[in-house]
Amino acid sequence: MRVDPASHLIAGVNFVVSPNANERPQGCQPSVIVLHNISLPPGEFGGPGIEQLFTNQLSPDAHPDYASIAKHRVSAHVLVRRDGSIVQFVPFHRRAWHAGVSSYDGRENCNDFSIGIELEGTDTLPYESAQYQVLATLIDALRIAYPSLSKQRIVGHSEIAPVRKTDPGHAFDWNRLHQELA
User: How many domains does the chain have?
Assistant: First the structure.
């Protein structure tokens, strides 16, 4: 896996353009990777809901849980599905709207300087082996493309927005990710 330096896209993966992105502040390089989880409907996997949410096409009538989130304007750079397949929504040099009100290492607004990776999952259900393997490969590719990223700067959404967020949750095995990265 590699990130194309011209397009800032992962070579060979499905790219679905999200309008929920904008330019990073002048001179700002990604320096932290933020891991999230998402499933739409909650606890269900494999459907079109995530792509619809990130492209502002989620119908509030399609599921009872969608009424409260359909108008949200959110995205992530990448989604890693349960089977390990990847969908990219925002080129890495742009700011995806994934972190919301957040801070890390004394800096506010983590969207400015982070790469957001969504894992298809929940806080409580174990993630799949394919997700850990692909995530580690993706992180390695990102580190090559963006030397400003370091091994120590992989955090959960819960770390940058602890009052609001719990993802990637207790089911995410940080030790396994670090073993895959080793």
Answer: 1
